[in-house]
Design a protein that fits this description.
Layout: H1 8-14, E1 19-20, H2 39-52, E2 54-58, E3 65-69, E4 76-80, E5 87-90, H3 92-96, E6 102-105, E7 113-118, E8 124-129, E9 137-140, E10 143-150, E11 155-162, E12 165-172, E13 180-189, E14 193-197, E15 200-204, E16 210-214, E17 218-220, E18 226-228, E19 230-234, E20 257-263, E21 277-280, E22 282-285, E23 297-300, E24 306-309, E25 322-326, E26 331-334, E27 346-349, E28 355-358, E29 371-375, E30 380-384, E31 395-398, E32 404-407, E33 418-422, E34 427-431, E35 442-445, E36 451-454, E37 465-469, E38 474-477, E39 489-492, E40 497-501, E41 512-516, E42 521-525, E43 536-539, E44 545-548, E45 558-562, E46 569-574, E47 583-586, E48 592-595, E49 607-610, E50 630-631, E51 634-635, E52 645-646, H4 649-652, E53 661-662, E54 700-702, E55 705-708, E56 711-713, E57 716-718, E58 724-725, E59 729-731, E60 737-738, E61 741-742, E62 757-759, E63 762-764, E64 784-785, E65 788-789, E66 799-800, E67 815-816, E68 827-829, E69 832-838, E70 844-850, E71 876-878, E72 884-886, E73 904-906, E74 909-911, E75 924-925, E76 939-940, ...
Length: 1069
């Protein structure tokens, strides 16, 4: 035999110590030590286990019995030994078929620990076989073999690696002193609790999700007998509740390591097996079932979980075990065992949410009449009343009445009987027999409440079908199916029809039929692509039906889908494992859970999900997509089969996958666009970015032309086919058609039709009186006078049609011109206009007249409007309406200073001075309405103006400036005189800044009426005229500039800054 030996330098160059492939390999580690033990002995051990320990299972046809090795073929390609431990590696296609993967590293010797970790969550445990000898591991044919490793060298360990964990088979050559095996388990990472139910040990994360598992071990003796081992945990707290762990707080282990004890034979209170015996624990993830099963049931619960129960394992072992699947976490967990192990049973959901299991075959081979129910609320099984007849391979159907119909099956002979279960009183009663005895048939509840039973065998295959009507407890034959079949599928569809597919027949049936419940007829349906029996079917949430697996001449991995809306079959993709006698359950999330079944080399423990792809995800066929559209190898939101439309970003050159859209302009990735047409309209050969080929569509290919004076033949344009097509005619009105096209503007009315006129380069109908015009043609009256349409020619002396030139009347009405309006050549000098002017009698006479209150507009005429005061004669101002008005005298009403001859508007009257300027807290006024001595004369207001403690100094209120006790200024000698002047001390310099004198420019409020004191102080106490202003009290908040130069001014100004109240602001400008 050829051996492969790598030198340490070659190993270093390769970057790893050794990769052991399926072929024999003897290697050295980096230090020159042997990495594995002798291989011939290891291979001989593997061969002996495979040939000595066999499990009988049904053959590929589901009927014959064959025996398969308990030690299944290895799927590992070899081991990476570069880290000092052995890490398996697998074929890439196998890894792709395993959605959830684990990492396993094996020790170099049997006395070391192997490590199992969940690649998704990082949870990890380390497991060592207690009492193991330091036997060197040998890699052979994908297995890792530790010879003479356990039980004082009388037992061997063989690891069979998988992508989701490892099986550590232990071969005991003879009976150990104590029939048990002890494992030391270290909770390395992420383990929040342990749960032990039905001899299955689960490692729980902090969310209550089981992530790792030691499956329930079993032992196979030398005579082929199979015995389940018992498991216990020592040194850690363990959750033993049958209630599933999801969502529950895990039971803390209270230790970082535990001992797991596996017992069998006398140590477990069971019979001793024959030796040599093979023990098979398995340490894996929880994405697959806890045990291998076929002929089992899988039932969707009301909360969305799935109950998997019963069935057979290899060696024809019948399961007591039940387990639950959580779609949320994608994990399986153990739950309470059934009271009776059974296979080929039937399961149905009762009206109260429990799952009833009936009949089947026991482990002893007898047909059962017992029934039991699983309560998902507390995860317990409760015995129910036994059926009237034992039966297996029968059907149970939940009726609208809440009852359950059990029909047919076998119990030594094929059964014709049927019975009803009453959920209220827990009783079974016989109902009328079926028309035909049958087993391996189907029963489907119809929309009308009847039950359709089809096919089966007795003993040959049946084509008959019949209906059960609960109201009359009658069975009625329907027309027969076109092909006899059993072990087929029947699926109720949304259109009140039932799809019958495949089945066992002569030969295996490829055909399908549809039962129409509305008219009790059978409709033809296209054949499947593959004949199949022992398959499974499930209706998807979109109404289509998927059939999976089965058997023709071998186990099938394929699936296909039926579309009732467009009857036909299309590929549904391949399962990861070929299987028959499996289950397919549609979950609430739309996925289909496939569990167990028979495959190669026997019973299957695996589970997988069939899922329609969402938009944008990869696909190969329409039926892989939720929408039913697979375009450009991605699932698409529409059929998307139009020219230059695509669904993948790569083909579109833009956008996102899964959204049908236009292919990018200037590209043609599918060569869809050909050169069409000729000449100007020839296409580009690329897509146009709008979902079509670049055809120059819409481009002008022939110019327009005039048919007559007001009609245009429109320009011709290219169409999508490359032809130059005319586009009809257009009316040019109110413009004329000149040359080859309609005019779109005018310069004179000659460019317009006779009934229109050119106004501001637009042809419009003739204008009414007062409308702008450029000539008589522009007017309905045919009189265009002074650029407006007029009601008459208006040609008399001193007549006008414009409102601006008349004393009265609007534009468009002829009337007398304004007096003084020039009616001939005039001159204007120094505000006097001389020359011919209109008189009050509408005559034109030579005269001279002043322009007052205006000035000359130019050397010829007076102004008649103004925009600034400079355009008005002295003593006048320009109003906002453009008129010159005389300025007011002292005391006259005003809004702003420019309206007054004095230039000051204070308290809404013309004032003799600024009178406090822009200071807000002054104590001066100019209007009697606010307390001044006279309108127009600035004077002190009454003594209450500055409040009780205020002081008027220099015309400004100072807050808290007067001592109430002495009636003197604060910090002043008692004999210091008060400054009561309006403008401050005589020697104070005048303050001419705009803070002191402000000429307002805005509008003032309306002056107060009826003597109201518009400038009265808010909250100020009243005072008697003539009294000295009080030295204390509320001044209203005087924080203003002062003109006083006394030594006390600085202190008073500091008080101003602290003022808290203010006198109401009065108008100053």
């Amino acid at each position: 035999m050829k051996r492969l030996t790598l030198s340490s330098s070659a190993v270093a160059a390769a970057g790893l110590t050794c990769l052991l492939a399926q072929s024999a390999c003897d290697t050295q580690d980096a230090a020159g030590r042997r990495a594995t033990g002798p291989q011939p002995e290891a291979r001989e051990l593997v061969t002996r286990i495979k040939t000595s320990f066999l499990a009988p299972v049904p053959g590929m046809d589901g009927k014959r019995v064959v025996s398969n090795p308990v030690l299944a073929p290895s799927v590992a390609r070899g081991f990476d030994l570069s880290s000092g431990a052995a890490s398996p590696y697998f074929a890439s296609d196998l890894l792709k078929a395993t959605p959830k993967q684990a990492s396993v590293t094996l020790p170099q010797s049997a006395s070391g620990a192997f490590r199992l970790s969940d690649n998704t969550t990082g949870m990890a445990i380390e497991v060592v076989t207690e009492g193991a000898d330091p036997s060197r591991g040998t890699a052979v044919d994908g297995y890792m073999v530790y010879r003479n490793a356990v039980a004082s060298g009388t037992a061997h360990v063989v690891h069979r690696l998988q992508p989701d964990g490892t099986e550590d088979y232990v071969l005991f050559e003879s009976a150990p002193q104590v029939p048990q095996l002890r494992y030391g388990v270290t909770l390395a990472k992420g383990v929040a609790g342990l749960r032990l139910v039905s001899d299955t040990l689960e490692f729980i994360d902090d969310a209550g999700v089981p992530r790792l598992r030691m499956a329930a071990p079993y032992l196979v003796g030398a005579r082929g007998e199979r015995q389940m081992a018992a498991v216990d945990v020592q040194g850690c707290e363990v959750d033993r509740s049958v209630v599933p762990p999801w969502g529950r707080a895990p039971v803390a282990p209270k230790a970082s390591s535990c001992t797991v004890v596996v017992r069998w034979g006398s140590a477990a209170g069971m019979a001793e097996p024959s030796y040599p015996a093979l023990l098979d624990p398995a340490w894996t993830l929880t994405g697959n079932m806890t045990v291998k099963r076929y002929f089992h049931t899988a039932t969707l619960l009301g909360d969305g979980r799935v109950l998997v129960a019963g069935g057979r394992a290899d060696n024809f072992t019948v399961h007591l075990k039940a387990e639950l699947y959580s779609p949320t976490s994608g994990t399986f967990t153990t739950t309470a065992n059934m009271s009776t192990g059974r296979t080929n049973q039937s399961a149905v959901v009762l009206a109260d949410g429990r799952v009833m299991i009936t009949g089947g075959v026991s482990g002893g081979g007898s047909t059962l009449n017992s029934a039991e129910a699983f309560d998902p609320n507390n995860a317990t099984w409760v015995g129910l009343a036994a059926m009237k007849s034992a039966r297996s391979n029968h059907t149970t159907t939940a009726l609208p009445s809440g009852e359950v119909l059990a029909a047919g099956g076998e119990a030594g002979a094929t059964l014709q009987s049927a019975e009803l279960y009453n959920t209220v009183n827990n009783t079974w009663v016989l109902t009328q027999n079926m028309q035909v005895a049958r087993l391996n048939h189907t029963a489907t509840l119809l929309d009308n409440g009847k039950v359709l039973v089809t096919g089966g065998e007795n003993p040959g295959m049946l084509s008959s079908a019949e209906l059960y009507f609960r109201t009359f407890e009658t069975w009625t034959l329907t027309p027969a199916m076109s092909v006899a079949r059993s072990s087929h599928t029947a699926t109720a569809m949304d259109n009140n029809k039932v799809l019958i597919a495949g089945g066992d027949g002569s030969p295996v049936v490829i055909g399908a039929q549809v039962y129409n419940a509305a008219n009790n007829t059978w409709e033809a349906a296209p054949d499947m692509s593959t004949a199949r029996r022992y398959h499974a079917a499930a209706k998807l949430l979109n109404g289509r039906v998927v059939v999976s697996g089965g058997y023709t001449t071998s186990y099938l991995t394929s699936s296909e889908m039926f579309d009732p809306g467009n009857p036909g079959w299309s590929p549904g993709g391949d399962m990861k494992a070929a299987r028959i006698r499996h289950t397919a359950t549609t979950l609430n999330n739309g996925k289909v859970l496939v569990t167990g079944g028979l495959g190669t080399p026997g019973g299957l423990q695996s589970a997988e999900l069939f899922e329609l792809q969402k938009n944008g995800l990869p696909c190969q066929a329409n039926n892989e997509c939720t929408t039913g559209y697979c375009v450009d190898n991605v699932c698409c939101d529409a059929v998307c089969n139009s020219t230059c439309m695509a669904c993948s970003a790569a083909v579109k050159g833009q956008g996102q996958d899964g959204v049908c859209g236009a292919i990018k302009d200037g590209t043609d990735p599918r060569d869809e666009c050909e050169s069409l047409g000729t000449g100007t309209c020839q296409t580009t050969g690329n897509c146009d970015g709008n979902g079509g080929c670049g055809t120059q569509s819409g481009m002008q290919c022939q110019a327009s032309l005039c048919i007559d004076g007001t009609t245009q033949q429109n320009a011709s344009t290219c169409d999508a086919n490359g032809a130059c097509n005319p586009n009809g005619t257009s009316s040019c009105m109110p413009y004329l058609c000149v040359g080859n096209a309609c005019l779109t503007s005018c310069t004179t009315s000659a460019d317009c039709i006779p009934t229109s006129a050119c106004v501001l380069n637009v042809c419009v109908p003739p204008g009414a009186n007062g409308s702008p015009c450029g000539g008589n043609i522009d007017c309905t009256s045919k009189n265009c006078v002074e650029s407006v349409c007029c009601d008459s020619p208006c040609g008399g002396t001193c007549q006008s049609c414009r409102e601006a030139y008349k004393d009265q009347g609007p534009d468009g009405t002829c009337g007398a011109a304004k007096v003084g309006l020039a009616c001939g050549a005039t001159s204007c000098i120094n505000g006097i206009q001389s020359g011919p002017q209109c008189t009050s009698t509408s005559t034109c006479e030579t005269t001279s007249a002043p322009c007052a209150p205006y000035l000359c507009a130019d050397v010829n005429v007076c102004s008649v409007t103004c925009t600034t005061d400079a355009q008005c004669k002295s003593g006048n101002y320009c109003t906002k309406t453009g008129k010159c008005q005389p300025k007011g005298n002292l005391g006259g009403i005003c809004k702003e200073g420019k309206e007054c001859l004095s230039g000051f508007c204070v308290d809404w009257v013309c004032c003799d001075k600024a009178c406090g300027g822009n200071v807000a807290n002054d104590c001066n006024g100019c209007s009697m309405a606010v307390g001044a001595s006279a309108d127009g004369t600035c004077s002190l207001l009454d003594n209450t103006a500055c409040g009780v403690n205020g002081l008027c100094s220099g015309g400004v209120c100072l807050e808290n400036a007067k001592d109430a006790a002495t009636d003197k200024p604060v910090d002043s000698p008692a004999d210091a005189p008060l400054d009561t002047s309006i403008d401050g001390p005589a020697d104070a310099p005048a303050d001419t800044s705009k803070d002191a004198i402000h000429e307002g420019t805005g509008d003032a409020p309306v002056p107060p009426q009826d003597g109201a004191a518009g400038g009265a102080q808010d909250g100020a106490a009243g005072s008697t005229p003539g009294e000295t202003p009080p030295a204390s009290g509320d001044s209203g908040g005087c924080g203003c500039r002062t003109q006083s130069s006394s030594t006390h001014a600085a202190a008073w100004l500091a008080m101003i800054g602290a003022a808290s109240l203010m006198i109401r602001r009065r108008r100053r400008s």
